[in-house]
Amino acid sequence: MMTTERYLLDTCALLYLAQDEPISQEVLEVLDLMPSRSDMVVISAFTAWEIGMLVAKKRVSLARPPVEWFRLACARFDVEVLRPSADVLVAASFLPQPLHGDPADRILIATAREHDLTIITRDRAILSYGALGHVKVLAC
After folding, report:
1. Is the pLDDT of residue 38 over 70?
2. Cβ contacts of residue 37 below 8 Å, gap of 6+?
3. Helices marked H in the chain
4. What is the SS3 assignment for 98?
């Protein structure tokens, strides 16, 4: 069975996958069904910024510098990196309410909405936002 759904890895999902942390069975099945993830799974370039911020704040420790770690993780999981467009960045300012003010989450949500992607995440706020029908989500 081949899926036509496309997915956006949230920053936490990329970190969990890269560090071999437990991931939901549903996400593992989705990833295993894809012959080439580069067409079906993407990540926002904004995630590189978010990883850099987590390292700078000492909330995450990586074995390599953040940008190198990000590039290697993207290559390892065969994911395309999407650059945020002006349309996505502006749309992030006008998302349906209620939504908290985290700019990284807003940009990821706007990216998913613009490209008709399902966000793979553990972020409770994004999952709740998805439950309201504002964005497609898959809990990891």
Report:
1. no
2. 31, 77, 78, 79
3. 11-18, 25-33, 37-40, 46-56, 66-76, 86-91, 103-115, 124-131
4. coil
Rounded CA-CA distance 66/62 in Å is: 7
Residue 8, φ and ψ in degrees, nearest 5: -120, 120
CB-CB contact of 81 with 42 (8 Å): yes
Assign a CATH topology to domain 7-139: Rossmann fold (3.40.50)
Sign of CA dihedral 104, 109, 112, 113: negative
| 18, 52 contact by CB (below 8 A) | no
Going from N- to C-terminal start, the domains of the chain cover 7-139
Compute the chain's Rg from CA coordinates: 14
pLDDT at 54: 95
**100/46 Cα distance (integer angstroms):** 18
Report the pLDDT value the prediction gives residue 34, as an integer from 0 to 100: 61
95 contacts 109 by C-beta, under 8 angstroms: yes
Instruction: Please give the torsion angle defined by the CA atoms of residues 60, 63, 65 and 68, in that order, rounded to the nearest 10 degrees.
Output: -110
